[in-house]
Specification:
Helices cover 41% and strands 21% of the residues. Strand 1, helix 1 and strand 2 form a beta-alpha-beta unit. By secondary structure, the protein is of the alpha/beta class. It is globular.
Length: 281
């Protein structure tokens, strides 16, 4: 008997991306699970049209904490974790089926081909020979956390097969439509990471604030060969360095000055003092 395969997708307002993702898996998986964060568009309707079982989860602004809940809904022996802006090409689907049938591995580390602004990225750590993620695994072989961009961890003893890139077997990730979408995501995720680090007791550091962006640029543009992508690669390397810088200054801001609501309260106090100077702050 062939093992059953579930695909799990977390969504928030993905009605435009989701049909492509579902079309790439609906013919060869046995179970489709979509965990939606109360979308305002037709995401749930689209999912059900492809036979998905749809579950709701509180809206958090990013999907990582909901991964464990989504996995718990899967009924397959194996699970493929997919994002709504990702597509499984036919060659990769065939390889995943073969891995599940053979059973000599417990998980597969998949090559990724990332696209930014309609262009396939070759360097920066985002090319298909550089970017790999464990997204296909036997049920019960992964530890799941809510950590941003680092939510799956193979359990000790898990046999992981790293699939080599063969030209047509990379999972396609249509990550950003343009530079604006890159910057919007940078702004959102740097705030989330700064809040997480503050909760972990990490203290801001001027050395880290200055050194990490420089290190990130050198790493992505030179070591990871972002220069292969020309001007596009240079821009993305700068934006990745900016990610590190914004995360650090947002951490410093939260520790030194508090949240945005704290600042709004401070402004109200200053305004009242200016209007009524005899009243104490």
């Amino acid at each position: 008997m062939n093992p059953r395969i579930s695909v799990v997708i977390n969504t928030l307002n993905e009605e435009h991306n989701l049909p492509l993702a579902l079309d790439s898996v609906c013919r060869w998986v046995d179970d489709i699970v979509v965990v939606d964060m109360h979308s305002n568009d037709r995401t749930a309707t689209v999912a059900r049209a492809y036979g998905a079982r749809v579950f709701l989860y509180e809206r958090l602004g990013y999907a990582d904490p909901a991964r464990a809940f989504a996995l718990a809904q899967a009924t397959g022996d194996w699970v493929l974790v997919l994002d709504a802006d990702e597509v499984v090409p036919a060659a990769l689907a065939a390889q995943l089926h073969a891995i599940a049938r053979r059973g000599d591995f417990d998980a597969a580390d998949l090559p990724y081909q990332n696209f930014v602004g309609g262009v396939a990225v070759r360097g920066l750590g985002w090319g298909p020979t550089q970017d790999h993620h464990v997204r296909f695994f036997r049920q019960g072989q992964m530890r799941v956390t809510g950590e941003v961009h680092n939510f799956f961890h193979p359990l000790p003893g898990t046999r992981v097969l790293r699939l080599p890139y063969q030209g047509d077997n990379a999972l396609l990730h249509f990550s950003y439509t343009d530079y604006t979408s890159v910057m919007e995501k940078i702004n959102r995720y740097t705030g989330i990471e700064a809040q997480t680090k503050q909760g972990q007791g990490v203290r801001p550091s001027l050395l880290r604030e200055t050194a990490l962006p420089v290190r990130e640029f050198l790493l992505t543009f030179l070591v990871k060969r972002g220069y292969r992508d020309g001007r596009h690669g240079l821009r993305l390397a700068v934006l990745l360095a900016l990610y590190k810088y914004l995360r650090e200054i947002k951490l410093d801001e939260r520790v030194q000055r508090g949240t945005r609501e704290d600042m709004l309260n401070r402004y109200r106090q200053l305004a009242r003092q200016a209007i009524h100077p005899k009243d104490p702050l």
